[in-house]
Design a protein that fits this description.
By secondary structure, the chain is an alpha+beta fold. Among the domains are: 193 residues, no CATH class; 141 residues, no CATH class. The protein is 29% helix and 29% strand. The protein has 18 helices and 32 strands. The strands form four sheets. It has a 16-stranded mixed sheet that branches. Strands 17, 18, 19, 20, 21, 22, 30, 31 and 32 form a nine-stranded mixed sheet that branches. It has a five-stranded parallel sheet with strand order 23-24-25-26-27. Helix 4 links the parallel strand 23 and strand 24. The chain starts with a helix and ends in a 10-residue tail after the last helix.
């Protein structure tokens, strides 16, 4: 739950733009010593629980709880990552059944918005109130309130309450959690061994959340490739628990793949009587039949002239539109993303920053069919070090480290390098040249001390995130773009930028001369600038309504803190961003559509914003298929429906050239010749199929 409500909100809702690997770290691993004081007793007799919070290999915060003699728990929770993070004081009490009797959270959230969340159980009723939610309900049985502002320790409280309730509990404000025991595991740190049990909790996120418990049922920790919360002194258990978590996920993914993938017979697959999108011509071809054998397209032509092999699986596509597999050029893959992507017709993604072991493992299993997921291009991050640096495992502060960082990704066969916020300015041209020497592309954020135009001159093949482009014109040298200033400066100034001005036109000329692309991820900034606490932005309601209830709640937490009198300005800046994208497009600057957000389900909104800015829908479909494939050198096998290319196909109910949002009305998906039912995929991750949306 902590991973979902805190980290997921930060990394996704607040943008893996904001967050944007696990391997031998250039800075070294955490080397703790188990300590009996991690779970001790204070001088006044109060019990103390002390947890360390680690992001990848970097200590990033703590969760310290004092349990008074009367049972009142007070938690000091601090998590600082990538220039921001929550600072909370939590005060709460438990009922005999382990559910919350009362709860209060105060402090500030991930982006600095003041927090005052309260919950209380009264005789027969429960009430809750925060800046995002307010409600009450009659209680007819046990129910666990899920705080929006919380610490990792609440994972353990929920797990224990579920065990007391025989594995099932109603959630407040809504939903239901279920518990399943998944195994046992022993960890040894500095000669001390601990026997742990793993349980998974469903109902909180797209996939079950794994929680580690001690033998007595008390909470040990929450661990995955990105985020870990374990007792202080037991940080050495993180890597073994990550490995065991991956093993458990692999087993689950394989079972889902077996259940959800439909492999056509040896005779192949035929999709008949479809309206086919000709990506090169940016137009429809009426009444076409596509024949697939194995993982490739072997025939395409008018239905009246195209022979369907005897014994082939036939899909009648009359009245529907067949698109090449869609792309998402900006993702950070996590456990649920393969299913989410394929369900939304996304058959190829570019992972532009991840735990390398996780990205490599997912790519391998997606390619082999052991898990459901898209084709994956991998870009490895190189970051600097410092208090506001992001927690990447591959870092560089000097030439030797920069060479080692690039070499690490070269040996793993990566497609590109991504340079991040705190990379020393002097190393940027070197990293770019080293990558280019190995035929790898270079993209990235704009490191502190540089502007986007400096990065282009230093060798970037593309600039990542539209906010980084705006900072080229709006931020002076005094603005520390490692902090949330990289968002607030743009939210305050984007609306007033003159797109016809000389600085903008000079920048466009530079991009054109250097053949540099833009990876805008405009959707995440629309959400960041237009979200207000307690309300779902109108443009995102259709997406939110389909998501699991606890995921949907994160929309209510808002976006940036808004200074007095700036509400309309932030909205206007969000509206301005698609117009700049159109200016780039009209000038011939390559655009790479990507989301940096919840996988699959948010791509349609990203494409809608391109159209909203003034790019014709047929052109947007081209950009997200053959266009991105050409830019990234994948057009020999991807991007269009042609004989010899991968059989990556998306059948939609509608006409996306008339209404681009119809790309979300997916009725069938083919990836490498394997057929998937999107409704079944969506249900497997708790997403309501579009056909069932209100």
């Amino acid at each position: 739950m902590q991973r979902h409500l805190a980290v997921r909100t930060a990394l996704l809702a607040l943008l893996a733009a904001i967050v944007d690997c696990r391997a031998p770290a250039a800075t070294g691993q955490v080397s703790p010593t188990p300590s009996a004081t991690s779970f001790g007793t204070a001088a006044d007799g109060a019990r103390q629980l002390k947890y360390a919070v680690v992001s990848l290999t970097r200590p990033s915060g703590h969760s310290h709880t004092t349990i008074a003699a009367d049972g009142t728990r007070t938690t000091d929770y601090v998590y600082h990552e990538n220039g921001r993070g929550p600072e909370l004081t939590l005060t709460y009490r438990l009922q005999p059944d382990g559910t919350l009797a009362s709860y209060q959270a105060r402090g500030r959230d991930e982006m600095g918005i003041a927090v005052d969340e309260q919950f209380a159980v009264e005789p027969g009723r429960a009430r809750w109130q925060s800046s995002s939610e307010r409600g009450e309900t009659a209680l007819t049985g046990a129910a666990f309130y899920l705080p929006l502002n919380t610490s990792c320790e609440v994972d353990g409280l929920l797990a224990r309450a579920l065990e007391k309730a025989n594995g099932k509990l109603s959630l407040l404000p809504a939903g239901e959690a279920r518990l399943e025991s998944t195994g046992e595991f022993k960890v040894t740190v500095s000669g001390t061994q601990r026997h742990l049990r793993s349980v998974s909790i469903s109902g909180l996120d797209f996939v079950p959340s794994l929680v580690w418990l001690d033998d007595d049922g008390s909470y040990f920790g929450t661990v995955d490739s990105w985020f870990a919360c374990v007792p202080e002194g037991w940080e050495g258990a993180i890597d073994p628990l990550i490995a065991e978590g991956k093993r458990l996920n692999t087993v689950r993914d394989a079972a889902l793949a077996q259940q959800l993938a439909q492999r056509p017979p040896a005779a192949g697959l035929a999709i008949a009587h479809a309206r086919v999108f000709d990506a090169a011509g940016k137009k429809w071809l009426d009444d076409q039949t596509v024949v697939v054998r194995g993982d490739r397209i072997v025939a395409l032509g008018p239905s009246a002239k195209t022979t369907i092999p005897a014994g082939a699986l036939v899909i009648d596509a009359k009245g529907k539109s067949l698109l090449p597999g869609l792309w998402d050029a900006h993702v950070h893959l996590s456990q649920a993303d393969g299913l989410l992507d394929i369900a939304s017709g996304v058959t190829t993604v570019r992972d532009v920053g991840n735990d390398p072991d996780l990205a490599d493992d997912l790519k391998r299993r997606f390619d082999s069919g052991e898990a459901v997921g898209p084709h994956v291009l991998r870009y490895g991050v190189v970051e600097g070090r410092g208090p506001d640096a992001a927690s990447w495992t591959i870092t560089a502060m000097n030439e030797t480290e920069a060479r080692a960082a690039v070499d690490f990704y070269v040996k793993r066969g990566y497609d590109g390098i991504k340079i991040y916020n705190s990379t020393p300015v002097a190393l940027v041209p070197l990293i770019a040249q080293l990558a280019h020497d190995h035929q790898m592309r270079v993209d990235g954020h704009v490191p502190f001390g540089m502007r986007a135009e400096d990065c282009v001159r230093a060798g970037y093949d593309e600039v990542t995130h539209i906010n980084m482009v705006y900072l080229n014109f709006l931020a002076g040298p005094e603005v520390d773009t490692r902090t949330t200033a990289r968002f607030t400066v743009v939210a305050a100034g984007a609306a007033s930028l003159d797109l016809a001005s000389k600085p903008v036109q000079d920048f466009i000329a530079l991009l054109r001369a250097r053949h540099t692309a833009i990876d805008p991820t405009v959707g995440v900034f629309e959400r960041l600038f237009t979200s207000r606490t307690g309300a779902i932005p109108p443009a995102w309601r259709s997406i939110a309504d389909r998501l699991p209830v606890q995921v949907r709640r994160t929309f209510l937490t808002g976006g940036l803190p808004i200074p007095d009198g700036m509400d309309q300005r932030y909205n206007d800046s969000a509206a301005a961003m698609p117009r700049l994208i159109t200016v780039f497009h009209d000038a011939g600057i390559p655009l790479l559509p990507g989301t940096d957000d919840w996988a699959g389900v948010t791509l349609a909104r990203e494409l809608e914003l391109y159209v909203q800015g003034g790019i014709p829908a047929a052109e947007v479909l081209y950009l997200d298929t053959l266009g991105v494939a050409r830019v990234l050198g994948q057009d020999r096998t991807s991007g269009s429906i042609e004989v010899g290319k991968f059989a990556d196909l998306v059948l939609v109910d509608g006409d996306p050239i008339v209404r681009i949002s119809d790309v979300s009305r997916v009725v069938s998906v083919v990836k490498s010749g394997v057929v998937y039912d999107p409704a079944a995929l969506n249900r497997a991750v708790g997403v309501r199929p579009w056909q069932e949306s209100p």
